[in-house]
Design a protein that fits this description.
alpha/beta; 8-stranded mixed β-sheet; Adenine-specific Methyltransferase, domain 2; globular; 292 residues; 35% helix; single chain
Length: 292
Amino acid sequence: MPTQIRLVDDPIRRGVPPKGQLLKWIGNKHRMAAEIVSHFPREFGTYHEPFIGSGAVLATVAPSKGRASDSFAPLITIWQTLKDDPRQLVEWYAARWQRMATGPKGDQYAAILAEYNRSPNGADLLFLCRACYGGVVRFRRDGYMSTPCGIHTPIAPDAFARRVSDWHNRIRNTVFEHVEYKSAMDRAVAGDLIYCDPPYSHTQSILYGAQDFRLEQLCDVIAQCKGRGVFVALSIDGTKKSGAKICDLPIPSGLFAREVFIDCGRSMLRRFQMNGESLEEEAVVDRLLLTY
């Protein structure tokens, strides 16, 4: 029997995050989304998110009019399918979950991962990001995903279907596009809001395409948007090593009007790198930089 999904029209409480994550992703803002959104303007036009990633902030804003994008095509396939055909998304996940359940677990995961690496696609990525070790979706420069199987059991298809229903309702007024961030941000007009959550220079070089990302170039685009009257919020490295290391970044003087520090808790990426060792000294704080 195929997993069923019931799409509802319950009103969404804007500013309140979904109960569960749809995707696991490096830098996932699910825990911090409500705090981040609390610093957004009370009123704005179209909401733009040009580095969509896990979409936690988008789903918390639940915009009445939004545009979200990414340069990573398989990821955008997931988001477009969530909006246009959420039942298909559930079927993708359920088929791979059931395949993994036939065991051996590690062998089935490795086979799905190999299929993804032969032909990168949203259907495989959707399941892999929930089944891989620690939710750390790690890529080589050539796009090869290399994260091993996680020790956990991915959530069951019925539970995933409930999340799809909730997330579909939150993002249904958003247009998803496979474009580079500059093209996406160039579309914003006065009164719009852009939230940028790019790869972090100090911690996220394993993200797809992160090796070629330059913060200086993003800051130039943010300055152009600010000049047009667009509100821009940027999440970026703050402190590491429980505050002992302040991340030095090439942020132009005067570009941002305010700086807020957001407590992210202990680094899941470091947990992966340290093989589960103690993370008492690995708390991370992000900067939230605001042009307004």
